[in-house]
Amino acid sequence: MRLICVIALVVASVTCRADESAWKVGVATVTVTPSQPMWMAGYSGRTKPSEGVLSELHAKALAIEDSAGTRAVIVTTDLISIPRPLRQQVARAAAEKYKLDPKGLLLNCSHTHCGPVVKDDLEMSVMYPLDPEQRQRVESYFVELREKLIAVIGAAIEDSQPAKLSYSHARCSVAMNRRLPTKDGFQNSPYPDGPIDHDVPVLRVESLDGKTLRAIAFGYACHNTSTGIMQINADYAGFAQSEIEKAHPGATALFVMGCGGDQNPYPRGQIEWAMTHGKTLATAVEAALLPTPKPIRGPLKFDLKEVDLPFEPVTRDELLARRESKDGYEKRRTEALLAEHEKNGKVRENYPYPVQVLQFGGDLTMVTLGGEVVIDYALRLKRELGDGSVWVAGYSNDVMAYIPSERVLKEGGYEGVGAMRYSNLPSSWRPGVEEQIVTTVRELAERLRK
């Protein structure tokens, strides 16, 4: 009788491990290149719409389902941002059409500065001098983009089939810290002694027999600002994806933007550099595919929580004083804030900031953070979570502003304070936001582990 029990336990254990390794994965791609000339996002100095298309922009979806039927979908986009309204509308539609839990939907953008303006009420009225025709094109593109994102999620789910998941990583040296300390403060300039994270995490999707490579999701923490030409293109991240797909016919490459808020590609300024950096990153991905990968097992768990990050308080009198600024961006920003104060009796005091964690058994933890997150977060979270492989992505689910660490906030400069002038957010973040964010990540990760 005891022997029978032992055999039963062994069989149950083997079956459990087999189930944990049983994945269904689907992948799909859609082109999201604007069909007509549009104002390009990212650089405030532009004075005219785009002039043609150098390379197509894409949105790609990876639907991952474990043996219990729990499903998450990772959507990567060759876009400047994911505005909060876009995330909300896509998540709501995916829940209704495909029964996808919104907490299991990850929307990430590459932050290319050679793509179209994506409708975002936080910055459209401040940063871009849009005439009525261009504003209408932005409105129309938003609707078209939303429907394409909903559709590509459905296509990936429809494509689901048994698969193997595994993880590996390599290094790439394209990025350099861009916060150069000077006697006049921190300048946006190459700073080779500043913090960086050259890690290139790679999640590979293969057929069950291991003979067919179906998808490669890879990440890197660096601004997509290699070039500022007036032709639509996806910068180095787009060229990297193209190189990988050329090297692996039939496979889909998905770029996941990391915490590159204070990282730039160097050298930069010419389209040739974007192509070179893309090839360099693709080479790093190829290097990551060489070692024996780490199998990724289930179960799949995820959670998403919004934490209220506080702004420094601003009074109406302070806004009236700021309205006298000769800076056009600051003036337009202040006008928008005064209108908000007139309507609500105050300006917003905090922002609902998204923090998301996806756990693949004990093998991989993926942390996603909203906004333009600086590198300190990735370095800290990988150090502190440190149980199994940890992948940290910024620019996810809502890109509303730069997210400085406590260090960067104290130092000031563009990422700490200056960039807020291009939005209608009222002021800089209050001290303590880093601890709020990291504490929330820890809470979600520990809850999922239990």
Concise overview:
By secondary structure, the chain is of the alpha+beta class.
pLDDT averaged over residues: 93
- β-strand percent reads 25-35%
- Count of helix runs: 12
**Low-pLDDT sequence parts:** 1-18
User: So what's the overall shape?
Assistant: globular
SSE-based structural type: alpha+beta
Q: Strand tally, please?
A: 19
Describe, in plain words, how this protein is organized in 3D:
By secondary structure, the chain is an alpha+beta fold. The chain folds into two domains: about 25-300 and about 355-400, no CATH class; about 315-345, no CATH class. The chain is built from twelve helices and 19 strands. The strands form five sheets. Strands 1, 2, 3, 4, 5, 9, 10, 11 and 13 form a nine-stranded mixed sheet that branches. The longest helix is centred in the N-terminal third of the chain and has 27 residues, at about 130-160.
Name its key features.
single chain, 450 residues, alpha+beta, 4-stranded mixed beta sheet, 12 helices, 19 strands, globular
Topology:
Blueprint: H1 2-20, E1 23-31, E2 58-65, E3 71-77, H2 84-98, E4 105-109, H3 124-127, H4 132-158, E5 161-171, E6 175-177, E7 179-182, E8 185-188, E9 199-206, E10 213-220, H5 235-247, E11 252-257, E12 263-265, H6 271-288, E13 294-295, E14 300-310, H7 316-322, H8 328-344, E15 350-360, E16 364-369, E17 372-373, H9 375-385, E18 389-393, E19 402-403, H10 406-411, H11 413-416, H12 433-449
Parallel strand pairs: 3-4, 10-11, 16-18, 17-19
Antiparallel strand pairs: 1-2, 1-5, 2-3, 5-9, 5-13, 6-12, 7-8, 9-10, 14-15, 15-16
Helix pairs in contact: 2-4, 5-6, 7-8
